[in-house]
């Protein structure tokens, strides 16, 4: 059986296997990503058309639709006016729009986790496989993404909304720093606890059961999960901070240099970093769930591993 305990060796092995599998399946992941993004754009357009046509009929044509969007603009503007950021109508309208726009892309991300599951189980996948997961778990993945968005962002909106409602939009520097620190910690913890949500959905669990299982496994194996999660966050910070710092120092004069530096980092994040994160989260889920799969690490054809370890 696989070792579920945390150690530096286990962390190194998690990262090594994940990036090796990501590199081995780089073409399949790239084609799958492009494919599901294009499909998600088409689905989003269809969603908007499906919502637009009934609205056009119910509101009495183009003039009624124009009045509706003008009123909607007033409601959304209410979010950014003093003391009313907690307005339920404003928040509800904003949340609805965000959910509609984001839901097809949540499905795309979840489908890519399906590819990651195939890689962990069989050491390989195909670009076509992502569309099977897209179709098979369409509603579950959409619901998972929307619920994840609420879990991560709703407490932050309430925190900032309360501060703005009590003090106003000009927050003292100390309070601003405290809120920013709390927000950062919440993002790290909530996303870490949710690291295995999509793998659980791919495994056949319902949306709520997937969150419960991810939270349960993440808490039980807190050190193993968060050492891996913080390692990936550290890599992301290393990739993002230098270009931002360079632009801050050099300004527009250094835009070309920063652009040249950013290109390979973007390629790394898209082609290796994200696939490796997907593979790593699937791999941890399989190990912690006791699901035995025979996976041979690249370069070690004679070894049989459980859960990719």
Task: Please give a handful of descriptors for the protein shown.
disordered C terminus, mainly alpha, 1% strand
What does this structure look like?
The chain has one domain (8-304). The chain is mainly alpha-helical and 309 residues long. Helix content is 79%, strand content 1%. Helix 6 runs antiparallel to helix 7, helix 7 (173-193) packs across helix 10 (222-250) and helix 10 (222-250) packs antiparallel against helix 11 (255-289).
Short description:
This protein has 309 residues and is mainly α.
Structural class, please? mainly alpha
Helices and strands, in N-to-C order?
A: HHHHHHHHHHHEE
What is the count of distinct domains? 1
* DSSP summary, beta strand count: 2
| Percent in helix | over 70%
Total helical segments: 11
Shape: globular
Percent of sequence in beta strands: under 5%
What is the CA-based Rg, rounded? 22 Å
- List unreliable stretches of 5+ residues: 294-309
Can you list the strand order of the major beta sheet? Answer: 1-2
What is the element layout, followed by pairings?
Elements: H1 8-24, H2 26-58, H3 62-77, H4 88-122, H5 129-136, H6 138-167, H7 173-193, H8 197-202, H9 207-220, H10 222-250, H11 255-289, E1 294-295, E2 305-306
Antiparallel strand pairs: 1-2
Helix pairs in contact: 1-11, 2-4, 2-5, 2-11, 3-4, 4-5, 4-6, 4-11, 6-7, 6-9, 7-10, 9-10, 10-11
């Amino acid at each position: 059986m696989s070792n579920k305990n945390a150690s530096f060796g286990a962390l190194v092995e998690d990262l090594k296997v994940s990036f090796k599998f990501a590199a081995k399946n780089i073409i399949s992941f790239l084609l799958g990503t492009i494919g599901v993004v294009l499909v998600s754009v088409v689905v989003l357009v269809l969603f908007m058309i499906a919502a637009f046509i009934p609205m056009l009929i119910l509101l009495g044509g183009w003039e009624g639709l124009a009045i509706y969007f003008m009123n909607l603009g007033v409601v959304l503007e209410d979010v950014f006016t003093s003391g009313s950021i907690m307005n339920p109508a404003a928040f509800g309208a904003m949340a609805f729009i965000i959910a509609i726009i984001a839901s097809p892309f949540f499905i795309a991300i979840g489908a890519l986790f399906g590819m990651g599951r195939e890689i962990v189980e069989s050491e390989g996948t195909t670009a076509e496989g992502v569309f099977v997961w897209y179709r098979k778990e369409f509603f579950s993945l959409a619901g998972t993404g929307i619920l994840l968005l609420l879990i991560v962002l709703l407490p932050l909106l309430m925190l900032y909304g309360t501060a703005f409602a009590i003090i106003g939009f000009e927050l003292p520097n100390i309070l601003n720093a405290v809120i920013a620190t709390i927000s950062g910690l919440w993002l790290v913890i909530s996303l870490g606890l949710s690291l295995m949500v999509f793998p659980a959905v791919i495994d056949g669990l319902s949306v709520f059961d997937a969150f419960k299982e991810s939270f349960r496994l993440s808490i039980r194996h807190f050190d193993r999960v968060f050492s891996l999660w913080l390692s990936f966050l550290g890599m992301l910070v290393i990739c993002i901070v230098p270009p931002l710092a360079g632009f801050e120092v050099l300004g527009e004069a250094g835009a070309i240099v920063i652009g040249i530096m950013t290109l390979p980092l973007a390629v790394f994040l898209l082609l290796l970093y994200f696939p490796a994160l997907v593979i790593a989260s699937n791999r941890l889920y399989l190990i912690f769930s006791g699901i035995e799969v025979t996976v041979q690490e690249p370069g070690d054809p004679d070894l049989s591993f459980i859960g990719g370890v």
